[in-house]
Amino acid sequence: MPAVTDIGIDLGTSTVIVYVKGKGILLQEPCLVAYDRDRNIIRAVGEEAEHTIGRATGNIMAIRPMRDGVITDFTVAEQMLQYFIRKSMGHRNFLKPRIVICMPSGVTDIEKHAVEEITYRTGARDAVIVRAPVVAAMGAGLDILRANGNMIVDVGGGITEIASLSLGGVVVSQTIKVAGDAFNEAIVQYVRDAHGLYIDVTTAEKIKIGIGSSRRRGDVLTRMEVRGRDIDAGFPRTVTLTPDQVREAVSGKVRQIVEAVRTIIEKTPPDLATDIAARGIVLTGGGAQLAGLDKAIERLTGITTILCEDPQTAVARGTGQYIRQMVRLEQER
């Protein structure tokens, strides 16, 4: 008899992470499709697309069907989701899965309905849409079902979501279009302006991971050689960057996130804000791994700020917990 399975999907702007009940996280790949313009077909998805685009001729273009946390190309998104679901399920004989998929708090009903339709067309027997801050908090280990105040700051690729939560729901939230990708773009712009050198976002990502920080670092001797194309001469050239230069590059973006956190605290009801001050602010998401971001928030708010364990997969892990709660409720009926 075919087995029944449930799948949780963190459909991010930069990365798609898939959780399968009983198996854990089985897939973590770029939210990317390689499209062949000459043949009008999708040539590859995810990691394979990233590899293909880097080595293909001009007829292959990169399509990212997500922007700022919402779907911008529904046809491509549907085919991408089908690919990831099939890859996660393998060749085992399953009934149609129930799919839990997270979306930003600020999505419209039309956007939510569109995601539900796409999810059903991928073969789901049921589509459950949940708000990203809720599952991010669950994945970070917060008990959000009680009447206590909690705060989550989920820094993804395209957006950052800040939310105060209580009794299993979002009390106050804000979504800003500043996150990991914005850090990369700021580094690209800084290298261009300060050194007259063009680098791509992949190189900027390596710089961010290697020596990126939002605070002055003690390892001032740490430097990184960066190779790019001279804007004027057009030839390859190498420059050396320091952590302080990268800090300067991303400081404006970090400030936007920190200010948004302060705004949400100010809008949170006093009793819940008191709980948050006592319990601390929790950071999730791949972009939250920028060194010193926690301390930047802590300095401005005066509230202890903690980066959760394995922050990039927190939302996907949270969908798994959400699924377990759904199953438990069904069994209790």
Concise description?
This protein is of the alpha+beta class and 333 residues long. It has 10 helices and 18 strands. Helix 4 crosses helix 10.
Verbal overview:
The structure is a single chain. This protein has a five-stranded mixed sheet, with helices on both faces. A five-stranded mixed sheet has the order 13-12-11-17-18, sandwiched between helices. A hairpin with a 2-residue loop joins strand 7 (66-67) and strand 8 (70-71). It is flat. It has helices at 47-53, 74-89, 109-121, 132-139, 180-195, 201-211, 243-267, 270-279, 293-301, 314-332; strands at residues 6-11, 15-20, 24-30, 33-36, 41-45, 60-63, 66-67, 70-71, 98-103, 126-131, 150-155, 160-166, 169-176, 197-198, 224-230, 236-241, 281-284, 305-307. The model has no long low-confidence stretch (mean pLDDT 89). It starts with 5 loop residues before the first strand and ends with a helix. Helix 5 (180-195) packs across helix 6 and helix 5 (180-195) packs antiparallel against helix 7 (243-267). The chain is an alpha+beta fold. It folds into three domains: 6-135 and 314-325, ATPase, nucleotide binding domain (Nucleotidyltransferase, domain 5, 2-Layer Sandwich); 142-178 and 255-309, Nucleotidyltransferase, domain 5 (2-Layer Sandwich); 180-249, ATPase, substrate binding domain, subdomain 4 (Actin, Chain A, domain 4), CATH 3.90.640.
